[in-house]
Amino acid sequence: MAIKSIEVMNVMVFRRQWRNQNDDCKTGIKAGDVLRDAFQLEFCDGINVLIGENGVGKTTLLKMIYAATQWSNEQTDERKTNRLLHFFSDKLKDNEALKNTTNKEDFCYYKISDGEHSFEDSLSHNGIFHYDEWLGLNIQSVFIPTTEMLSHSKGFLAMNQKYSMPFDGTQVDIIVNASLPETREIPAAMSGILNKISDAIDGTVILEEDSFYVVKKDGRKIDFSLEAEGLRKLGLLWKLIRNGLLESGTVLLWDEPEANLNPELYPLVAEILLELQKNGVQIFAATHNYNFAKYLEIRRTEKEQVMFHNLYRGSSELPGALQKLYLEQEKYGNEIYSRSAYRMEELGPNHIMIADNKLLDEVYEQ
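Structure (tokenized):
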């Protein structure tokens, strides 16, 4: 089951969106001339790549999707009923911290849909809407945070249960998922992916006495923390697949897959993600790296496998007179907008391409 769309209003950086009621705003703007819309994105069933400068909400969207998928499962574990707040920090007291700072008194919510059912978390009412239709869909999901966590696994889960640890829920969950028992049978398609990762890290990953190790092909057992961080990221992916957590129907959310990776490994990670997608895994990845995103585009075999979503700030989407008004009233001139396409060149303003072009210009001038 795939996530089809998200809608957000007044949560974190996402404020209400404004548009002219008649799309013909020349003079005499009044309060009744504008309608208020939520930020919205529609996703493909394959790989959804979120790009954009810092602070435009890429990670926030990933965590919203993750929180919603967790609520779709029959609750046998209390941590699966955590609200969005938990996936940012255990230190935050209530949902007030997640509300947009300029619109705390307005309606604040986010809504996730699979096309037939929806999950709506209202921060204003501190309640979940449409929960009866969402519960039981059992959308399995895995969130890989930017921070590498497996090297901290020794005693982590026991300590976290007893004390308030300074980690968010996604960081705790990834250790839990990596610590699960391995599956007895591995699908043939997944075996091929495991072999590619094993070649890259020169071994396999095991868990012994609450600690992770890489067992090299020559028999050496290396503590996970002693591996290069980029290889640790691949090792984590190997363990998740080996534990049966990335099978057909799963949603994988990966924040900055390229972080700490040698650029020579970008094609391998892109190839692995495309293989996972072919085997029924829907993927959401947030990235700042043009080369990594471009590898996903040029290595795909079908256009619909990979869709790009560009998030950016500005008032350029508004009619001219509204642009002027909202820029004068700074409160409305800094909204988050998005554009989606199957080719990165069709997105604008694309900040990761802008940065790449600036570098090329400097090289040329030199």
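Residues 87 and 169 are 4 Å apart (CA to CA). The mean pLDDT is 88.
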